[in-house]
Amino acid sequence: MESQNNKMAVTEEAFPSVRKECGKRGRKPGRKTSTEKIDIKAKLERSRQSARECRARKKLRYQYLEELVADREKAVVALRAELERYILWSRQLNEHVSTPNTDQFLKEIGIIKEE
């Protein structure tokens, strides 16, 4: 009898994947212990906290993007004003009209050197 038990133990050690099927495995549905209920409540609270943090991060990201867009729009307005100034000076140069603004422009771009 002892030799049969030894053979069985050796067989189980040599082939660990070979097991006796003893019915269904896993959790049984509908059976929750009090610790599992507490775990579910804790998990739900963690989920809610995570959702709050996610919404806060999302709000901060939108604020950052709105500020970025506002800064870019200000830069666009400034560049358009500069472009209009260059167009005006270009027309004045083509018409050979010299004004103090035109002289300032020519100094800025380096055509007229300051003495």
TrEMBL record:
Keyword line: Activator, DNA-binding, Nucleus, Transcription, Transcription regulation
Coiled coil: none
GO function term, MF aspect, one: DNA-binding transcription factor activity
Compartment annotation: Nucleus
Top-level division of the source organism's lineage: Eukaryota
Keyword Transcription regulation: yes
Gene Ontology CC terms, in alphabetical order: nucleus
Primary site of residence: nucleus
Matches recorded under InterPro entries: bZIP, bZIP_sf, CREBL2/REPTOR-BP
A Pfam cross-reference name: bZIP_2
Region spans: Disordered: 1-37
Residue intervals of the BZIP domain: 42-85
Protein family: Belongs to the bZIP family. ATF subfamily.
Name of the molecule in the record: REPTOR-binding partner isoform X1
Source organism (scientific name): Drosophila pseudoobscura pseudoobscura
